[in-house]
Model the fold of this input.
Amino acid sequence: MGKPLRLIVTAAMPILLWLSGDISSRQGLHIINTAQANESAPAVSTFCTGRFLIDMPAGSVLSGGNYRYDFARLDKPRAMSLEEFEAEMATKEKKLRSTKHETEPSLLRLLIKSDPHSWIFAHWEYDFSEHIVLVDGYRWIDGTRFLFRSKAGMSKPPSGTKSYQEDAIDRMQTILAGLRKRSTHEIPTEPGYCFEGGFIANPEWEMEEAGIDIAGHPDAYVSVWFYPLSLRAHSQPLLDRVGGVLQMLGRMATSVHALRRGDRQVGPYKGQEFLVTAPNSGGLRGHSFIWETEGEGTLDAPALKIELTTGHRDKNGNPQQTRLTNEQAMKLWDEVLDSFRLRPVAHPQETRP
Done:
């Protein structure tokens, strides 16, 4: 009997992460502490993350590979020469063209080169694929290669609309056209989306996620999701969903200790927070803090979610014991939420038609 109970208890943290929504906690804004915490009010740096600003301990750096923009996942930018970029593109094109598909001449369905430094590949992933097309957008800018990945279904679109592949390619062309390099602490004054090493100029709001590695705690990260025009991103408010999940956990709920729960306003955004400590997937205690708004379907009241998790696995996938006490984790959480704000821009934000 002891072994099954242990398996149930160590599953508490993943289920608590799941209750916040159907998007993985590793997708979107990730803030991971990487240096020793300073108890005496450390100096802070302001970072541009997505369309928002957030203050983090000095020494923090932007993290790559955990961003999404308009349904495309952003790979971590890579430093490479133009010659290396051209060789990579030639190799990819050759491989896709030379690999046969079961029903088409090759894996490559379409190649678009809007300029010598921008390449878009629409291709099958496998020779037997038939339902999903991958759309990969590459752009080289001053010694850095950027890569965006998206997918398109092959089902028939609504009458009178473009195919899903065409739509994904159009979105990718818009992303690459608005892309430019950006230094870590540069805060643009034009509308757009900040991520590690780059910026996408665009007055229109998309579904977006972004991230930072924070100085202080290698086992902790914060994720932020932004759903611009969602009207209620979930079927129920956060605290209503929490009650149902805790009931579902049954005996396992005894290992989950609530530290704080209730309504909380972050800047102009009214939402709810739920802060607990629970075992992570390795059986080591960590924290799961969630705040979210339901949204009203407008840019003034979008759907937002911010999440802090401690006891996260290290870079080798090993579970970690959190280095934060409950009090330290709550203090970090309050500092994150209190500093979260919309980035001011030189021109008024435009809304979608």
The CA atoms of residues 19 and 243 lie 10 Å apart. The radius of gyration is 22 Å.
